[in-house]
Amino acid sequence: MFPIRDRRGRTIAFGGRTLANEQPKYLNSPESPLFHKGHTLYGLPQAREAIRRRGRAIVVEGYLDVIALAEAGIEEVVAPLGTALTADQLRVLRRLCESVLACFDGDDAGRRAAARSFATFVEAGLWGRGVFLPSGEDPDTFVRRTGREALETLLAAAEPLVDAFLADLAGPRRDAVGRSVEAAKEVSRILKRVRSPLEFEVLVHLAAERLRVREELLRGEGLSGASQVSAAPATADRAPGPEERLVEIMAMDEPIVRRVVAEGVIAELDHPTWRKAAQALAAAAGHEERAEVVRALPRETQDRIARRLMADASEMNHEAEAVGCIAQIQARSTERELKRLQEAMRSAEARGDEATADEARRRFWALKTQSTEKARGHRSPS
């Protein structure tokens, strides 16, 4: 009997394995309000710290595989519960690390299973890598027979699942027109699940190259999904955002312009109207042209400036609001850079480029630490 525990280490079910040849070989507790097989991973409470420390998670098939690897000193290992790995289980792992390796049999059936798993990884926001064991072996028997070092060698040679996916799509008759069309349709279906524009471009390029089709054929189906995702954050209500408010404050209070210029935040403004207005106000500071720049602002902005000047001309309020706007804009830029570095890590891992992945990881944590320290500084009393 194997106790199945939730993320907090509480036993929520049991898994049983026969000692003889009865069927089924494994039997789990039935699902309940506490136990959902598709959301739970065997061994996760014990593996959590090792996963964070090693920066990777290894997914095997069964309970005994988990135990054998842990006994061999490879502790960052988990297993699904008698069913195929789900996107929900992968999302749990993604919160702990960016690199997920799944073990498969090295025969044709194992490679087809790896190919099928790629769609699930993409749905969870991961690309993943496949570890292919010698035919007839599983992680339990392999590590007991050959030892940890031999398994670590296989783990180091893990292949991007995207390679298995595209190789399976291409098949032995990759030049057949019908085969290429069907393969392109399948890639387009996967592209609709890709949420990262960078990963979208990488997959389009790889698929076009491997399947020998034009990239335009793949983009036509896939871009609609990707463009909707990337366009969604731009939707907002008419309340002025931090960029527009910052321009208003710069127009009302000229000394604020020096603070904005010193922070170097103007280049981080997204909207071309407010970026150009901020640049013009900075260039006109201390000159007569400043009034012309203010008159060139959108009529709605001019009206709001006039109302604010009549309601409150406090310089202190302007300073505090400007600091808040600058902090929001800089935090947004930092978040985007962190996401870009995460995408760079995943793409490099998918290509097997460990040097690039390590550099992206180093820059990610340096920026994350800098951002955290800056946020603490803003919260600290002056």
Fold blueprint:
Elements: E1 2-5, E2 11-17, E3 26-28, H1 44-54, E4 56-59, H2 63-71, E5 77-78, H3 87-94, E6 99-105, H4 108-123, E7 129-133, H5 139-146, H6 148-156, E8 159-160, H7 161-170, H8 177-191, H9 197-211, H10 215-231, H11 242-252, H12 254-263, H13 272-284, H14 289-295, H15 299-311, H16 315-351, H17 354-379
Parallel strand pairs: 4-5, 4-6, 6-7
Antiparallel strand pairs: 1-2, 2-3, 7-8
In short:
This protein is an alpha/beta fold. Helices cover 62% and strands 9% of the residues. The chain folds into three domains: 2-165, Dna Topoisomerase Vi A Subunit, Chain: A, domain 2 (3-Layer(aba) Sandwich); 171-234, no CATH class; 242-379, no CATH class.
Structure description:
The protein has 382 residues and is α/β, with parallel strands linked by helices. It folds into 3 domains: 2-165, Dna Topoisomerase Vi A Subunit, Chain: A, domain 2; 171-234, no CATH class; 242-379, no CATH class. It contains 17 helices and 8 strands. Strands 5-4-6-7-8 form a 5-stranded mixed β-sheet. Strands 1-2-3 form a 3-stranded antiparallel β-sheet, with no helix packed on it. A hairpin with a 5-residue loop joins strand 1 and strand 2 (11-17). Helix 4 (108-123) packs across helix 7, helix 5 (139-146) crosses helix 6 (148-156) and helix 8 (177-191) packs parallel to helix 10. It is elongated, with a radius of gyration of 27 Å. The termini are far apart. Residues 223-238 and 312-316 have low confidence and may be disordered.
CATH class of the largest domain: Alpha Beta
Q: Please list the strands of the largest sheet in the order they lie side by side.
A: 5-4-6-7-8
In this structure, how is the largest beta sheet organized? 5 strands, mixed
The number of distinct helices, counting runs of at least 4 residues, comes to: 17
What is the approximate shape? elongated
Gyration radius (Cα, Å) is 27 Å
CATH architecture of the largest domain: 3-Layer(aba) Sandwich
As residue ranges, the low-confidence spans are: 223-238, 312-316
Tell me the span between the first and last alpha carbons: 59 Å
